[in-house]
Amino acid sequence: MSRPVVIRVALVALLFAVLAGALYFTPKPAPATEKSFTLVLKDNALASGSSVMTVNQGDTVALHVQSDRGLHLELHGYEKEFDVGSDGEATLNFVADKSGRFFLHAHGANDEHIEIATIEVQPR
Q: What is the pLDDT of residues 48-91, one digit of tens each?
């Protein structure tokens, strides 16, 4: 075999080894999980629970809300709405399929928006 052919074969083998190694050692994203959060509201304000909840894109999220009064809640960006009824509890379940920062707010008197919490969805 001539020297140029040996060099080409060696370069192809080296390139293959580098690509195979890069594919093997590339970090794999964590599998989607189920995340559950509980928010307790008193007088339309967050009394207990995290004001910023972080999940990964693809996760299934269960947002449990307990309140001392009935109210209407919206999760902007996901266009999800739900009501906390007279029993004082409600749950919103959704798949976090969009990355970004999304605001959960309540509608108060005179249609005012009351910021309750933020959900941060990290991209995969």
A: 999 999 999 999 999 999 999 888 999 999 999 999 987 899 99
Do 73 and 46 meet the contact criterion of CB atoms below 8 Å apart?
no
* CA 28 – CA 102 distance, rounded (Å): 26
Average confidence (pLDDT) over 31-51: 93
Is 52 within the bounds of a domain? Answer: yes
Q: What is the pTM of this model?
A: 0.73
What is the enclosing helix (H) or strand (E) of 56? strand 52-56
| Pairwise CA distance, residues 50 & 54, whole Å | 10
**40, 66 in Cβ contact below 8 A?**
yes
Is residue 114 in some structural domain?
yes
Q: How far apart are CA 73 and CA 92, in angstroms?
A: 10
